[in-house]
Amino acid sequence: MKLNNPEITFAFKTVWIIISILTIAILLASKFVNPDYFSLIPTCTSKLNHETCSFCGMTSAFIQISTLNFKQAFILNRGSLFLFAAMLTNGLVFLAYSTFKLINHVQTKNSKL
Predict the structure, then answer these.
(1) For residue 5, which phi and psi values (nearest 5 degrees)?
(2) Residue 15's Cα: distance from chain center in Å?
(3) Do 113 and 102 contact (CB within 8 A), yes or no?
(4) Burial of 50: CB neighbours in 10 Å, binned 0-12, 13-18, 19+
(5) Which whole-number Å values give the CA distances from 63 to 3, 38, 48, in the listed order?
């Protein structure tokens, strides 16, 4: 398998774009969606069975992070700050990449006129 195969490159970019859009939607939802709507999310089966789950409390922690309450977010889920930072970084890189590609496309199109 070649690393510079255009089909593989296209597939990876497509997956990255989809994941980035979902990531941005999750981050925006934690800030702008009414927290009462999150009560509609079913309870984790691990929590119901009194087992540990690395994602339990993540929604509440993200809401706390969006209000800049980092201590409470860490209490709710220890990995929330890292995951939020990783998702935010990926979202910002995606937006920068998309902006760069759009500007480059517009400049190329204008130079042909």
Answers:
(1) -70, 125
(2) 13
(3) no
(4) exposed
(5) 39, 10, 22
Whether 1 shows a pLDDT value over 70: the answer reads no
3-class secondary-structure state, position 6: helix
Q: Which long-range contacts (CB under 8 A, 24 or more apart) does 93-100 make?
A: 94/16, 94/17, 94/20, 94/21, 94/23, 94/24, 95/24
Tokens 């929330």 correspond to 80
Q: What percent of the chain has pLDDT over 90?
A: 56
Can you give the pLDDT at residue 86? 96
Are 54 and 79 within 8 A, CB to CB? yes
| Residue of 43, 47, 80 lying closest to 65 (CA atoms) | 80
Q: Supply the pTM of this predicted model.
A: 0.79
* 63 exposure class (CB count in 10 Å sphere: 0-12, 13-18, 19+): buried
Q: 13: which DSSP letter?
A: H
d(CA 25, CA 96): 16
